Amino acid sequence: MLSKKLQDAINEQIAFEISSALIYKAMQAYFEHEDLPGFANWMDVQYQEELFHANRFFTYVCDAGGLAAMLPFEGARNDYESPLEAFRVTLDHEQQVTARIGKLMDLAREQGDHAAQIMLQWFITEQVEEEASAGLIIRKLERVEGDGRGLLMLDQELAQRVYTPPAGA
Questions:
Q1: Cβ neighbours of 21 (radius 10 Å)
Q2: Is the dihedral of CA 114, 119, 123, 128 positive or negative?
Q3: Residue 87 covered by a domain
Q4: How far apart are CA 98 and CA 77, in angstroms?
Q5: In a domain, 99, yes or no
Q6: In the chain, what is the straight-line distance between the N-terminal and C-terminal CA atoms, in Å?
Q7: What is the mean pLDDT of residues 56-82?
Q8: Are 115 and 105 spatial neighbours (Cβ–Cβ below 8 Å)?
Q9: Total number of domains in the chain
């Protein structure tokens, strides 16, 4: 059975994941406004992934006999100085998510909740990929800074990203 302390911590993470989804949806709006549909697509995929993550946590709490609660969450901004700034905010946000997941894992270990640890391991692995992806785009944006052709090429590359729910999820 899920402890109250871990249930509450996961419920906070559910709210954070939903907040994350809205942050990425707002970034999508920024990129749509800037006529960068590939960047907008990348953010839409992020939005879908974050909602999936929230639902995965929600389902876990319910399956473990807990009560999944919908807590309030932070708002999102949709105005940035540049695509590079938006992706720096993205990487910073993903690093916050990684830290939060790590704290959840620490709590699950402290509580001796092996099932939660197994569930959280998927998120730890996912966060390595999330940070690497945002970091790579930042490095590419830094390389093409000031070169509109490079920005458009990167926009075309990001347009190819497709949301695919994880297998067995």
A1: 21
A2: positive
A3: no
A4: 21
A5: no
A6: 21
A7: 90
A8: no
A9: 1
Q: Which residue has the tokens 């994350």?
A: 20
Tokens 């609660």 belong to: 69
Please state, in angstroms and rounded to a whole number, the distance separating the CA atoms of residues 104 and 99: 9
pTM: 0.89
CATH number, position 48: 1.20.1260.10
Are 9 and 111 spatial neighbours (Cβ–Cβ below 8 Å)? Answer: no
Q: Identify the CA nearest to 74 among candidates 149, 160, 12, 3.
A: 12
Task: Tell me if 88 is assigned to some domain.
Answer: no
pLDDT digits (tens, 9 = 90+) for 126-163: 999 999 999 999 999 999 988 999 999 999 999 999 99
Q: Quickly list DSSP for 30-68.
A: HHHHTT-HHHHHHHHHHHHHHHHHHHHHHHHHHHTT---
Name the residue range of residue 48's domain. 1-71+117-161
Q: Is residue 111 part of a domain?
A: no
Cα–Cα distances (Å) from 68 to 4, 14, 54, 63, in that order, read 11, 8, 11, 10
Contacts of 26 (CB under 8 A, 6+ apart): 76, 77, 78
Tell me the residue length of the chain: 169
